[in-house]
Specification:
Blueprint (H helix, E strand, L loop, with lengths): L1 E2 L4 E5 L2 E6 L3 E3 L7 E5 L8 E10 L3 E10 L2 E10 L12 E4 L6 E4 L2 E3 L10 E5 L4 E5 L2 E6 L3 E5 L5 E4 L9 E10 L3 E10 L2 E9 L14 E3 L5 E5 L2 E2 L10
Antiparallel strand pairs: 1-4, 2-3, 2-10, 4-5, 5-9, 6-7, 7-8, 8-9, 10-11, 12-15, 13-14, 13-21, 15-16, 16-20, 17-18, 18-19, 19-20, 21-22
Length: 245
């Protein structure tokens, strides 16, 4: 655990239920980072204790609270370790919230998505002159010599391509969206080759967060799915799982 220098706020049902300049960021191996708030910075009058508990071999037993604001409630959406073991004593007196059950999270005045940003993770976008060719269903769907390569810690390299170098007639926009704490909100397209549709195969950040402007409006193809990507004539090995976009 380490103290975050950022002011962090949690919004639920129109109410700011936590607002702190002294949050602790908990980082555990193979888990997403979690913000813990001093209880003095949490509106405890909106928290209703429940009998629900969970156990962690490292942090001990967590007690839970339901959050109620007006006629809305989030069941067992807040937790705290009341008597953590000595090696995790720093977590005592702090409370965390179920990210997905909250309406909005803010770091300073910027909305953040999915989970806190890990200060030890990098996302770099570099212009490149590599020759990138994308095949879907055996047909070339995109080809460029001016891609932007996105390097994200512990993730596969992503190849972002200008629209002018994508066969946009093959793409069909849809309503799918995803969120990334490091890049923003992504919009999606499916690809149609003949009578076969490849759903949600392409995404783009139309308005990425301020820290990631280099991919704005560019298109990226899922190399984990039906896409085959060649870079300088060499086929890119497909990741074994769907990574975050």
């Amino acid at each position: 655990m380490e103290e975050s220098p950022r002011r962090v706020r949690v919004i639920f049902a129109g109410a700011t239920i936590a607002d702190s300049k002294h949050t602790m960021l908990l980082r555990e191996a193979k888990r997403l980072p979690v913000y813990y708030f001093p209880k003095t910075d949490v509106r405890m009058e909106l928290m209703l204790p429940t009998s629900h508990t969970t156990h962690c071999p490292y942090k001990g037993t967590a007690s839970y609270w339901t959050i109620r604001v007006g006629d809305r409630a989030a069941e067992n959406a807040a937790w705290s370790y009341l008597t953590p073991p000595p090696e995790c004593a720093g977590i005592k007196g702090y409370m965390a919230f179920d990210w997905g059950k909250m309406d909005k999270w803010l770091e300073e005045e910027e909305e953040i998505f999915v989970h806190p940003r890990d200060p030890y993770k990098r996302v770099d976008v570099l212009p490149s002159s590599r020759h990138v060719r994308v095949l879907v269903g055996g047909e070339t769907a995109a080809e460029t010599r001016r891609p932007r390569l996105l390097f994200e810690t512990n993730h596969p390299t992503r190849y972002y391509i200008p629209r002018e170098d994508v066969k946009m007639a093959l793409l069909e926009p849809n309503a799918t969206t995803t969120r990334c704490p490091y890049k923003g909100i992504a919009s999606y397209w499916s690809v149609r080759i003949g009578d076969k549709l490849f759903p949600d195969l392409v995404w783009s950040y139309q308005e990425p967060i301020a820290e990631c402007p280099g991919i704005k409006g560019l298109l990226c193809f899922f190399q984990e799915r039906e896409t085959v990507i060649y870079v300088d004539g060499e086929q890119v090995e497909a990741p074994k799982t769907n990574w975050s976009r």
